[in-house]
Amino acid sequence: MVRKFLISICFISLISFNSRCQGINNSIMLDWKLDNELLKEQINLFVDSVKIPSISDKLVWINCKIVNEETTIYTIGYCINIVSLIYSPPQLFFEVDGNTVCMSIQGMEDFVLNDESLLSIMKSVFPTQYKYYVENEIYPPPITAREVLWELTFKEGELMNKKIIRH
After folding, report:
1. So what's the pLDDT on residue 47?
2. Which residues contact 159 (CB under 8 A, 6 or more apart)?
3. Do both 10 and 84 map to the same domain?
């Protein structure tokens, strides 16, 4: 009886897991939640104040560099090209007040997005680039824009320094 119960639980778990995995290919999976209110505030300030003229298809992009146990440096910018996600793949996605954010973690370069995930992201976030890909069967050439990055240094969860970098 116990064996049948355990087999049933395993079977139900497998079906549930398989359904979740199939859903990954249909949209960006947003299972992460940002708890640092100061970082959320800075992301919202970035979105409200840094504009890219004539580019509406974009994601907020964060590069995370863990310096030591106490200090982390976050670089915030925009991802405007699917090609950027190939060469600097994010390890996680999350939302901050309705804005999708992707985050790359330095030192995690062994993990990349598979082609299905890239196409799903391109279709939902970069529809013009997706159309180009469908028509030409290659990734579109990168879009260029004047880049503004914010470099935020946090120590023990507190914002210690903010630097604005313009390219």
Report:
1. 94
2. 38, 39, 42, 152, 153
3. no
Name the residue range of residue 73's domain: 31-166
| DSSP 3-state of 139 | coil
* Helix pair 115-125, 127-136: axis angle to 10 deg: 130
Q: Which amino acid is it at 63?
A: N
Q: Tokens 């139900």 correspond to what residue? A: 12
Instruction: Using a cut of 0.85, tell me whether the model's pTM lies above it.
Output: no
Count structural domains, the chain. Answer: 2
- Same domain for 45 and 2, yes or no, is no
Check: CB of residue 59 under 8 Å from CB of residue 78: yes
Q: For 28, left (φ over 0), alpha (ψ -120 to 50), or beta?
A: beta
Q: Same domain for 119 and 149? A: yes
